[in-house]
Structure formats: structure tokens, C-alpha cells
Hints:
The protein starts with 51 loop residues before the first helix and ends in a 20-residue tail after the last helix. The strands form 3 sheets. Strands 1-2-6-5 form a 4-stranded mixed beta sheet. Strands 7-9-8 form a 3-stranded mixed beta sheet, with helices on one face. The longest helix is centred in the middle third of the chain and has 25 residues, at 253-277. Among the domains are: 1-68 and 570-737, Collagenase (Catalytic Domain); 121-392, Orthogonal Bundle (Neutral endopeptidase, domain 2), CATH 1.10.1380.10. The protein has 28 helices and 9 strands. Residues 1-28, 95-100, 167-176, 279-288 and 391-396 have low confidence and may be disordered. Helices cover 49% and strands 5% of the residues. It is globular and about 70 Å long. The chain has helices spanning 52-56, 58-66, 74-90, 106-120, 122-128, 131-141, 146-153, 156-161, 226-248, 253-277, 296-303, 309-315, 329-338, 344-358, 365-372, 382-387, 405-423, 425-436, 439-461, 468-480, 508-528, 571-587, 609-627, 639-661, 668-677, 685-694, 700-708, 712-717; strands at residues 182-187, 197-202, 219-220, 223-224, 292-294, 323-327, 482-486, 544-547, 552-556. β3 (219-220) and β4 form a beta hairpin. The protein is mainly alpha-helical and 737 residues long.
Amino acid sequence: MKRFIAFCMSVVLVAGALPTSAFGEPAGTPWKDWFVRGRLTDDDSIRLEDDFFAAANRDAILAYNADPLGPASVTEEREDQIMDQMAELIAPDEEGAGGATAGQSTHDLACLRTLYQLYADQDARDRDGIEPVVGILDRLNDIRTLDELTDWYCSDDARLSMAWHADLDDTSYVARGLSLFVLSPYNKVDGEAAGSYAVVTYAPEYELAAFCWSDSAVYTDGKVDVCRLQELRDAATNVDEAYLVLRSLGFSKRDAHDTAYDAALLEDHIEAALEEGATDGGDDGAFIHDSESLTHAELKARCKGGFPLDRIIDAYGYADADAYAIDGSSWLDAMNELYVEDNLDLFVSHALVSIALGCSTLLDSDVYAAAQDADGDRYISEELLEALPEEDDGSDEVNYDEATDEQLALWLRRDGCTYVREVAPTSYAKVYAQNYYDEQTSRDAETMVRSYLTHYEKMLGREDWLSQKTRAAAIGKLRAMRVKVGHPKAWPDTTRLEVHSRAEGGTLFSETRRLAAYDLEQELYLLHHPDEGEYWYDCMDVNARYDPATNSVVIGMGILGGAFWPEEGSYEERLAGLGTTVGHEISHAFDGQGAYFDKNGGFEQWWTSTDLEAFQDRVERVRECFRGIDPIGSGCYDGAQVSDEAIADMGGLKVTMLVAGERPSFDYDAFFRAYAKSWVSVMSLADATDLLANDSHPLDRDRVNVPVRELDEFSTTYDVEKGDDMWLDPAKRVSVW
Length: 737
């Protein structure tokens, strides 16, 4: 079953006057936290002019509150819709027969059904016990030298088990473990020969490091910093989970404790080395990009006598790449410094923990149950535990004891389909496209994207703070932007995909690794033969993205439905759901990170120094704006953490106003209400605190209220005036674009 993790964190209210930001906004918010589950009641009345998010979504919030076991956002509703459609095809019915017949994709469907059956057969997994992973754990435990560890890092066991590949994110059943680094290969877009590709290596956010903090690290000015306390508790929970899973895998109490602790210690050492070697970028490292591009020979020279990144990259099959980008050369320096015999046990422990967490959903019930028992509280001091409030209305963790048999069956089917999607993404997407997707949707959506690119160019042309040289470079980047809508135009060949059933000797663990190997081999082939298919692993995400390395906007099938692209929706509704998303993703090309990539995805300076300084000042205004917003009464946003997404939200809405302005009789009220609806959600206070601490996005309420009050069209539509909580003096608006 999916892991629904949430933590109840402390709320520290400071008496006395609230400080004021440079833009006149109090360090608090005029809006109540109606999005916290249970806070809004039938008796509460809200004016659109005071809290647009809550007023426009009042009925939806109340409905979400009334059904704590159902979806809690329109994104979840769309995800459930897709999952239920696919369950009709993949999941067997009560008689054991397959679901609906899937058009032309019989081979892909057969593979998906076999995977689902392996996942759903918990009795068989219990009979297997931990045997599938024992050999890997034994090999790691037998390592005695760095050379042996290097050999293991370059082995198939590591390649298929470690979360070292960009497509296998932290929630993947394939590798829901820990990463020391992530490899991301991509075809280059700068006009070189077909099949040329580069590999980027970057450091992830380390999930255990905060476990090594002292209690004093979570205090600011003598008061508990709720965000840092959240980081500490998240890390402690991860360590706790590692300990419990290792115990279930046969480790003694002492060995499990030492292994989990040493894994956290390694991450702490890496972060300390990074901090020591970081380029001076001011208080938050803003606008500093510590990266380099190397040839294979240069990479090999940089790794000599240190961390064997070059050999690991070669083991993945990337020895013939045209370039090797290190996103953070200080990271490689830190790893080289730490990769010594004295730290051998730390590196081995980290690998053991990564394997343990990665397999916790693939083995027997005992291993799974151990992973669910973690909360981290036993690692936190009594003083900090006392700072935790009494339980609020709970978290968004599903209480299975309250669910009906029908709900449990539905969740299990969806969870099995989620697993299938994550280990066989291409086959899953092909089956969905051939059975449920209208190809006209791609054509209509691509027309919308092209319209947005045209209007974004107009918007850039009106920015009088840009010099002619910088504006021309920005427009050149915009014109070179690639657009990917729906799904790959040329599907990768999946006829070689094999999944062995129980009768054929397959287990969930073995077939998951088989699929991981197939996935990597398929991607490597397509890197060399890009004309033979497009490897597009995330086209089923209810999301969209901008990829700075390829200067691409990606709008997959997942988001082309539901509230984001209503089947019978009006122009205003589709503009609010998908259009603003398109504008948001385009804006990422010109946010606080994307603005440093050129039209070909390289780190090239295309700004004049004067324009760059003006851009940085505008970004800082956005950061300062969010530093003045305390969304849940526990502390304000980290402005640097959320500024890129906030810039994209504002840019997406601003360019949408240009698109809307060219349509006669555009219904702005319908548009703004639909925009608010696309972000409606409820969550527990604990989950809101977790997002505030860790997410690069503002909370959903502030993704509505903050950017809409930047617009004349909004204040005019609702007669918002000075004194209303949705009012913002035009002189204090902070949009970058």
C-alpha cells in the first residue's frame, strides 16, 4: 500500500508586535488557514474580496472535510480517475479474469497484468520472505576495502538497486531509497549530430543529514524554528524506518542501529564538506551556479584517487557521452575528500540503508509493516517533544480501520496500478493512450502552448527594464523552446519487454529488477538512436514541467483531463487549468534558476551585467514578499526556497491575461474561479507544516491569492479596494515578468 506519511509539528506563536517587511506587508497573513482540514465550517462566511481562494472554493473545501477518506485536491481526483480507468484494464476481477480489453496493446497489457498479479499476491510474497534480497545484503556486508566497494558500486546489483538514476525518484517502488548522487542523461539540443548526449550528475537533498543536528540547531533567536524542527523529525523518521527495516531483514539491534546512524553520519559529512567548499553567494547562495562540464578524460582525472564517479558512469553505459556536467563541482570535491578507507563503514552503511528502504515495499508483510512503524520520536529530545502540540485533527494518513471493505479493495487496486506504472512507465502510458486518450486533445493543447509562446514573446517585448541585447537573447531562447504534449510521438519499442509470472519463476523483487534493467537499456539505446522513439517516463504525471537542460516544456497526458482540461469545459476553464500551467512552465525558463541556462541548455551568460543586476533585484522582491507571509501561524516562508515557483505562478498568470485580452467578451469571473478551483485542497496542519519546511512551492492557497492580487484584471473584476485583504497597492507589486 502507498505510504501516507505526515507529522504533527509544533506551532510556536510569538506574542508581541509582528515585524514588517520592506514592502509593507506584516509578517503574518491576512488570510486564515481555511485549507487546514476541519478549520472551515458551515457557519463561516468569506468574502471574495478578502480571501479569494477560500471564498471561491468554499463548497469544495467543505466537501473534502466531510470525506476524510476520499481525495483532498483536484489533483488527487484526476489521479484517481486515471488509476480507476487503468484498474479496469490491469486488475483482475473477482473471477480472476482480466479487466477490459485493451485495443492494440495486447503485449503491453499482458506484461502489466502479470506485474499487477505479482504485486497483489501478498501470500506468495510472504512465502518468499526476505530471501530475494539476502544475497545483495551479504555481498555488501562482506566488503572490507574501498576497492571492493568500488567494484560493488559498478556492479549490476548496485545499478539496479541504488536510487542513482534521474527517472527513479524517491517515491518509486524501483528504488525508494537514498541517493548519494543522481545521474541524468539527455540528448543535446545544440545542433550536434543525432545521438549526441550528455550526462549531468547532481546531488540530491540528503534525507538523513539533519538527524545529526544538535537540539540547538532547531532554534532561531531562542525560539523553535518549526521548519528546522520538521527537517529534524523527517530525518529522524527516516533513520527510524531504516533501523526497523534492517531489523526485519535480520540485522541485530546493535548492527541495525549502527548502520542507520552511520548512513546519517555520512550525509552529515557530505553536507558539512559542501558548506565548507561552497562558493560565497550571500545569505542563501542566490544566483551562484557552481557547475562545470568535463570530457571523459577530464572526469577521470577529477576522480583519480577519490570517489569513483567515472567508473560508475561507465558501468551505466555512458562512457561515450559527449560531455559530463557536474552540477556542483564542490560536491565532487567533497566526495573525493570523504572516499577514504577510514570512512569505508559509512559508505557501506549508506548503501545498506538505501537497499533496505528501496525493497521495503517489495518483500513480505513483516518488512512492509516495519517501514510503517517509524515515527522518529524516540530520537528527539524530551525538550523538543514537549514543544510538540497535542494532536490536531490528525494527518492525511489513511486510517484503514475506518475504511469499508469496498474502500480497502479500491485502494489496493489503485496501489497495485501505481506500482505497475512506476516500473513499466512506457507500457503503462501506451495502454492508457490507446484506450482512454483522445489524440485531438494533444492537438488542441499544443495550439494553446504555441499561443502562449507567442504572447510570452510579446510580454518580454514590453519589459522596459531589459536592454535590447538581453531581450533579444531571451526571445531567442523562447523561440528555440521545444514543446512536448500528450505522449511520445514515436513510442519506444516494448516488444522485448518480458515479465515472468509466478508459474515461470518470477517474484515481485526479481521482476522489478528486470524492469529496471530493461528501462535503463531502453533509455541508453534511445540516447544513441533518438529517431527510433522517445523515452518519456513521466507523461502520466498529473503535472507539467520545464526542462532547462533541453529548453523544453512538457505537458503529459496525465494533466490533460479533470479540472485542468475539462472535457466539456469552456475556454476560460481550460485557460485557467492548463493555460496558466503552460505559462508557469514557460516562466521557469526565466526564473531564478532557469534564467542562467541558454537556449541550448548550457550555463552561458546571456544577460548584460546591468540587466542581470536588475533581474536579481526583482527576484529578491519576490523573496521578500514571501518572507512576510506566515501561512499557518508557525513562521514565514523561506523566500529563497519558494521564489522560483512563485515567479512562475506570477508569470503564468500575467501572460494569461495577454491571451485573455485578445478574446472578445472574455469572462474573467469564470476564469478566476476556475483558477482557484485548480488549486483547491485541504490537508492536516502537520502536512502543511511539512510542505512549508520542505517544498519549493508555496502552499496552494498562496499560489492563488498571492499572484492574482498582482493583476489589475482581478481587482477590477471583484471591485477589490484598499482595506480589503485581497488588495495590494500597485506600487508594491513584485512580479518579475
